[in-house]
Write a structure and sequence with these properties.
Layout (H helix, E strand, L loop, with lengths): L4 H24 L7 H6 L7 H23 L8 H26 L3 H25 L1 H30 L8
Helix pairs in contact: 1-3, 1-4, 3-6, 4-5, 5-6
Protein backbone atom coordinates (compact mmCIF):
# COMPACT_ATOMS: atom_id res chain seq x y z
CA UNK A 1 0.00 0.00 0.00
CA UNK A 2 1.48 3.30 -1.09
CA UNK A 3 1.30 6.22 1.33
CA UNK A 4 0.44 9.56 -0.32
CA UNK A 5 3.11 12.26 -0.16
CA UNK A 6 0.86 14.57 1.89
CA UNK A 7 0.61 11.92 4.61
CA UNK A 8 4.39 11.53 4.70
CA UNK A 9 4.74 15.31 5.02
CA UNK A 10 2.23 15.38 7.89
CA UNK A 11 4.13 12.61 9.67
CA UNK A 12 7.44 14.44 9.21
CA UNK A 13 5.95 17.67 10.59
CA UNK A 14 4.47 15.82 13.57
CA UNK A 15 7.81 14.22 14.38
CA UNK A 16 9.67 17.51 14.08
CA UNK A 17 7.15 19.38 16.24
CA UNK A 18 6.77 16.64 18.86
CA UNK A 19 10.53 16.21 19.19
CA UNK A 20 11.76 19.77 18.65
CA UNK A 21 9.34 21.60 20.96
CA UNK A 22 10.13 19.49 24.04
CA UNK A 23 13.86 19.62 23.30
CA UNK A 24 13.72 23.41 23.11
CA UNK A 25 11.73 23.56 26.35
CA UNK A 26 14.19 21.23 28.06
CA UNK A 27 17.17 23.29 26.86
CA UNK A 28 15.79 26.39 28.55
CA UNK A 29 16.25 24.71 31.92
CA UNK A 30 18.67 21.88 31.25
CA UNK A 31 20.79 22.90 34.21
CA UNK A 32 18.04 21.73 36.60
CA UNK A 33 19.76 18.35 36.89
CA UNK A 34 22.93 20.10 37.99
CA UNK A 35 21.23 22.51 40.38
CA UNK A 36 21.80 22.18 44.11
CA UNK A 37 18.02 22.09 44.69
CA UNK A 38 17.45 19.15 42.36
CA UNK A 39 20.42 17.21 43.75
CA UNK A 40 18.79 17.56 47.18
CA UNK A 41 15.24 16.60 46.21
CA UNK A 42 15.66 14.06 43.43
CA UNK A 43 14.55 10.53 44.28
CA UNK A 44 17.11 7.78 44.68
CA UNK A 45 15.60 5.96 41.68
CA UNK A 46 16.34 8.85 39.31
CA UNK A 47 17.91 7.48 36.12
CA UNK A 48 20.92 9.26 34.59
CA UNK A 49 20.01 12.38 32.62
CA UNK A 50 20.92 10.75 29.31
CA UNK A 51 18.23 8.12 29.87
CA UNK A 52 15.56 10.83 30.03
CA UNK A 53 16.70 12.34 26.75
CA UNK A 54 16.71 8.99 24.96
CA UNK A 55 13.39 7.79 26.38
CA UNK A 56 11.54 11.06 25.78
CA UNK A 57 12.87 11.36 22.24
CA UNK A 58 11.70 7.82 21.42
CA UNK A 59 8.35 8.44 23.12
CA UNK A 60 7.78 11.69 21.21
CA UNK A 61 8.61 10.00 17.91
CA UNK A 62 6.19 7.22 18.84
CA UNK A 63 3.50 9.73 19.80
CA UNK A 64 3.95 11.50 16.47
CA UNK A 65 3.48 8.20 14.66
CA UNK A 66 0.42 7.39 16.79
CA UNK A 67 -1.17 10.78 16.06
CA UNK A 68 -0.39 10.32 12.37
CA UNK A 69 -1.98 6.86 12.32
CA UNK A 70 -5.15 8.37 13.77
CA UNK A 71 -5.03 11.51 11.60
CA UNK A 72 -4.84 9.32 8.46
CA UNK A 73 -8.42 8.21 9.21
CA UNK A 74 -9.86 11.76 9.22
CA UNK A 75 -11.10 11.34 5.65
CA UNK A 76 -13.31 8.40 6.59
CA UNK A 77 -16.72 9.93 7.29
CA UNK A 78 -17.74 7.25 9.79
CA UNK A 79 -14.73 7.89 12.06
CA UNK A 80 -14.24 11.63 11.50
CA UNK A 81 -15.85 12.80 14.82
CA UNK A 82 -13.89 10.16 16.75
CA UNK A 83 -10.64 11.16 15.04
CA UNK A 84 -11.21 14.86 15.72
CA UNK A 85 -12.04 14.18 19.39
CA UNK A 86 -9.03 11.88 19.79
CA UNK A 87 -6.67 14.44 18.28
CA UNK A 88 -8.08 17.22 20.50
CA UNK A 89 -7.46 15.08 23.61
CA UNK A 90 -3.99 14.26 22.27
CA UNK A 91 -3.25 17.96 21.76
CA UNK A 92 -4.42 18.84 25.27
CA UNK A 93 -2.24 16.21 26.90
CA UNK A 94 0.75 17.34 24.80
CA UNK A 95 0.23 20.94 25.90
CA UNK A 96 0.18 19.74 29.50
CA UNK A 97 3.29 17.68 28.86
CA UNK A 98 5.12 20.67 27.45
CA UNK A 99 4.00 22.85 30.39
CA UNK A 100 5.23 20.33 32.98
CA UNK A 101 8.97 20.98 32.47
CA UNK A 102 8.93 24.74 33.10
CA UNK A 103 6.58 24.23 36.05
CA UNK A 104 8.82 21.61 37.65
CA UNK A 105 11.95 23.59 36.90
CA UNK A 106 10.48 26.59 38.69
CA UNK A 107 10.78 24.47 41.86
CA UNK A 108 7.07 23.84 42.11
CA UNK A 109 7.04 20.05 42.24
CA UNK A 110 3.60 19.82 43.86
CA UNK A 111 1.97 21.88 41.09
CA UNK A 112 3.91 19.79 38.56
CA UNK A 113 2.57 16.63 40.22
CA UNK A 114 -1.03 17.81 39.89
CA UNK A 115 -0.40 18.71 36.25
CA UNK A 116 1.13 15.26 35.71
CA UNK A 117 -1.99 13.63 37.14
CA UNK A 118 -4.05 15.65 34.66
CA UNK A 119 -1.75 14.60 31.82
CA UNK A 120 -2.13 10.96 32.88
CA UNK A 121 -5.94 11.16 32.83
CA UNK A 122 -5.90 12.84 29.42
CA UNK A 123 -3.41 10.24 28.15
CA UNK A 124 -5.62 7.39 29.32
CA UNK A 125 -8.53 8.96 27.43
CA UNK A 126 -6.25 9.50 24.43
CA UNK A 127 -5.12 5.85 24.45
CA UNK A 128 -8.73 4.69 24.60
CA UNK A 129 -9.79 6.95 21.72
CA UNK A 130 -6.70 6.22 19.62
CA UNK A 131 -7.19 2.47 20.08
CA UNK A 132 -10.71 2.75 18.67
CA UNK A 133 -9.25 4.23 15.49
CA UNK A 134 -5.92 2.37 15.38
CA UNK A 135 -4.95 -0.35 17.88
CA UNK A 136 -1.28 0.32 17.14
CA UNK A 137 -1.71 4.02 17.98
CA UNK A 138 -3.44 3.08 21.23
CA UNK A 139 -0.59 0.73 22.14
CA UNK A 140 2.00 3.45 21.48
CA UNK A 141 0.17 5.80 23.84
CA UNK A 142 0.06 2.89 26.31
CA UNK A 143 3.88 2.80 26.36
CA UNK A 144 3.88 6.56 27.01
CA UNK A 145 1.44 6.01 29.89
CA UNK A 146 3.87 3.51 31.40
CA UNK A 147 6.59 6.15 31.42
CA UNK A 148 4.15 8.74 32.80
CA UNK A 149 3.39 6.44 35.74
CA UNK A 150 7.12 6.21 36.47
CA UNK A 151 7.37 10.01 36.15
CA UNK A 152 4.43 10.34 38.56
CA UNK A 153 6.27 8.23 41.13
CA UNK A 154 9.44 10.30 40.66
CA UNK A 155 7.51 13.57 40.93
CA UNK A 156 5.71 12.42 44.11
CA UNK A 157 9.05 11.45 45.70
CA UNK A 158 10.45 14.84 44.70
CA UNK A 159 7.53 16.55 46.46
CA UNK A 160 8.21 14.49 49.60
CA UNK A 161 11.89 15.43 49.56
CA UNK A 162 11.08 19.07 48.83
CA UNK A 163 8.71 19.21 51.82
CA UNK A 164 11.26 17.45 54.02
CA UNK A 165 13.80 20.14 53.15
CA UNK A 166 11.38 22.92 54.10
CA UNK A 167 9.83 23.58 50.71
CA UNK A 168 6.10 23.47 50.14
CA UNK A 169 4.20 22.52 53.29
CA UNK A 170 1.70 19.72 53.80
CA UNK A 171 1.14 16.34 52.30
CA UNK A 172 0.59 15.55 48.67
Amino acid sequence: MEVPATQIIVLAVLIVVLVAVPLLIARTGESIGRSKWFRQVRPAATPPGAVFGIVWTLLYIGLAIAAWLVWRQHGVAATRPLVIGALIVFGLQMLGNWAWTPLFQSRRPRAALYLLLTILVLSLACAFLFARVSPVAGAIVGAYIGWLIFALYMNAKTVENHVRLGGERGSI
